[in-house]
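Regression test case RT-17, inverse folding.

Input:
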């Protein structure tokens, strides 16, 4: 079960561009087959004086170079037992659905990103696990240390608070299967040193083939090189054989968002066998009043196509080998039967000849 809350900046005194800059901040509450009543704690941000908008429940901090401050989060244990909460700090990244992730992710920020949340926001040693007595409210304290050099744009990330749980194993029906129950909140953290509008930029880094959920796809790597959110991103993509006009694959995506200084692999479904050859991708992308046109050739090798086709769960499997083996066995059995029948026939002829001789 996934619960989510969306934060949107609506400050009438701010410019339209500044509204777009903040975009949509996601607060994730993650659970696996749990009811809301099973959550043993709640959290609340302690909003500091340097918060850009004090009406917001996530952190959006205006800071200065070389500045240090503490960030606090209240953890309220609503249960009748002591709980342990594990905090985790993560950079904001963009997943393959074009959604900003504030939790731990395999996705990385662009190479050369000057400042990351994971570098400037840290947990004291005694705060890596927070024990909260039953029906008591405790505070998690984090350290924010800004670099000496001034940085541009927004540094974005999240603080995830997860209850520590013992792993439960079902020993009856599913031996060896571990079922983990996770209860977690994620609070977004935005850090900046000035209010500034940035012109949106988008780059197409590369095109290659791969798989998503064991299905063949074309992966188009899009890069946001700007230290600001890229909001309301739309893409329209077509793929043809190189030099031909017939469209083989298409994809249209809307309402996507990219984290500052992030990249992601936008998938175009193939929904068929991957075929070797050289192809051309044409993509149109839009964000607000900005528009980009991309054209890029890419190739699919024979070995690559064979590998992905064999792994694609939607494609019928090639049973030629099984058919050949089956036919071979059938032929061998048939030959064996013929040999046995021939041998038996010869034996019967000999027996008949012997009987005739005895009668004479």
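Golden output:
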């Amino acid at each position: 079960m996934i619960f989510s809350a969306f934060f949107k900046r609506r400050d009438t005194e701010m410019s339209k561009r500044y509204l777009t800059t903040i975009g949509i901040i996601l607060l994730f509450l993650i659970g696996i087959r749990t009811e809301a009543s099973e959550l043993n704690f709640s959290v609340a941000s302690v909003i500091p004086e340097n918060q850009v908008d004090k009406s917001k429940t996530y952190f959006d901090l205006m800071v200065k170079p070389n500045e240090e401050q503490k960030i606090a989060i209240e953890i309220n244990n609503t249960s009748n037992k002591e709980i342990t909460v594990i905090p985790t700090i993560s950079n904001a990244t963009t997943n393959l659905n074009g959604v900003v992730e504030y939790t731990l992710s395999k996705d990385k920020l662009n190479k050369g990103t000057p400042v990351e949340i994971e570098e400037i926001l840290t947990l004291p040693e005694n705060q890596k696990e927070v024990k909260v007595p039953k029906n008591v409210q405790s505070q998690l304290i984090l350290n924010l240390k800004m670099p000496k050099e001034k940085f541009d744009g927004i540094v974005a990330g999240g603080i995830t608070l997860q209850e520590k749980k013992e792993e439960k194993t079902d020993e009856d029906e599913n031996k060896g299967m571990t079922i983990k129950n996770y209860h977690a909140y994620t609070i977004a953290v935005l850090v900046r040193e000035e209010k500034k509008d940035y012109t949106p930029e988008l780059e197409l880094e590369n095109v290659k083939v791969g798989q998503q959920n064991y299905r063949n796809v074309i992966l188009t790597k899009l890069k946001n090189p700007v230290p600001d959110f890229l909001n309301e991103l739309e893409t329209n993509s077509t793929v043809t054989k190189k030099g031909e006009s017939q469209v083989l694959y298409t994809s249209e995506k809307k309402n996507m968002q990219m984290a500052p200084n992030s990249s992601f692999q936008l998938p175009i479904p193939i929904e068929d066998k991957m075929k070797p050859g050289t192809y051309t991708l044409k993509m149109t992308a839009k964000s607000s009043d900005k528009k980009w046109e991309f054209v890029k050739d890419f190739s699919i090798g024979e070995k690559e196509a064979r590998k992905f086709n064999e792994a694609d769960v939607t494609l019928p499997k090639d049973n030629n080998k099984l058919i050949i083996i089956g036919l071979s066995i059938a032929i061998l059995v048939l030959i064996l039967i013929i040999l046995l029948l021939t041998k038996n026939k010869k034996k019967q002829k000999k027996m008949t000849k012997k009987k005739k001789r005895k009668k004479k």
